[in-house]
Amino acid sequence: MQGFPRRDGVLYAEGVDADRLAHEVGTPAYVYSAGVVRDRYTRLTAALADAPHRVHYSLKANACRGILEVLRQAGSGVDVVSGGELFKALRAGFRGEDILFGGVGKQAHELREAIHAGVKLINVESEAELRMVSAIAEELGRPATVGLRINPEVDVKNAHAYIATGEKGHKFGIPIGDAEAVGRLALTLPHLTLAALDMHVGSQLHSFEAYRAGTERLVELSLRLRKAGAPIRYLDAGGGLPVPYDDESEPDLRAYGAIVTAAANTLGAELLVEPGRFFVAAAGVLLTRVLYRKASGAKQYLICDAGMTELLRPSHYDAFHRIEPVQPRAGRIVADVVGPVCETGDFLALDRELPDVGPGDLLAIHTTGAYGYVMSSHYNARPRVREVLVDGARWAVVTEREDYEDLVRLEAASPVWRNA
Ligand code: LLP
Fold first, then answer.
1. I need a labelling partner for 165 at 20 to 30 A (CA). Which of 10, 238, 273, 308 fits?
2. What is the CATH number of domain 6-32+283-408?
3. What is the three-class DSSP state of 236?
4. Which CATH superfamily, name and number, covers 48-276?
5. How far apart are the first and last CA of the chain?
């Protein structure tokens, strides 16, 4: 499925002319293809067909209600990592049994909300958290089903240092050496059922060796804990499937599927997976208009109406996103594509070769459906932008643009001293 084809040279979002769309909704705007999301969901579930499985889309990648509806209708569950994400998932129609609740620093109120919602699993990341879940389950008089997120301490290749999570010494999960003891502790705590072991070893993983090594460790540990009496019935292999941002190839889903389904089948457990980026990255573009073009020293700058406030990945991870003009343009230039924010680190691309574009031209920043809008900020008092969903020839604004009032709505006009 080609979500953003060209017709007569002009970029489309499925059946909708991106230029006309930008005129209707303004820029910057995120535009998502429902068809791409559905297509990727179908392809991944086909690759997992050899084992009983459930996909739990990692909502942190893109928590837009419009996208959640598409995935829910396709049959997906969700993985959430905060009370806010849980709230969004429930509001989008996911039920407790569709939801995994993870995260390294869950607060007591978030655990209460998760137990109250009857989530399928709370993926616990430490012994202290396990005790807290038990105490809260007892207080609420409702049993909690937990998984243990294990740090399998495998070699995580190809991930940016900020998004590798499964190596020795990382803050995430229970170190593999401590895991059996924590599992045995879970068996002694009232109101808890230990039903799963879980891992998430990193994001944008081009080599699947970490999945193989990690799931092997999880299977072995699960078998030991089962012997001790734990009713382990799920193997949660986390997220992390990569997407091509430049000219890399798509991941070999069959190879991935073979590794994770074999592990689940060895254990005789249902496989759970939590991909985020894989479903939504290629389903999104950020449309931005060039405001100015200027030269400074040896550099050409294209100054756009979107920057690090809308898309943080280039400045935060040095991430590459393909950029194309929406209308065809002849000639080539090399330029830094930058935003309006008062930071030298505010860029979308550095020294990028592009068609010869100038002020007024519309650019599409590709592969921005994941970790785009969700990482946006109000820095420089910039309101958040619109999100648009396209499905075939139809389009809808699924998130409205913020206005200036939204920037001050929560502020007191002057301090109301509470202790005076
Ligand atoms: N499960 C857990 C426990 C996670 O921490 C994550 C992502 C996922 C699933 C989904 O991973 P994915 O399939 O999307 O790779 N902001 C970064 C990515 C951070 C990923 C954090 N955890 C970026 O823009 O590349």
1. 308
2. 2.40.37.10
3. strand
4. Alanine racemase (3.20.20.10)
5. 63
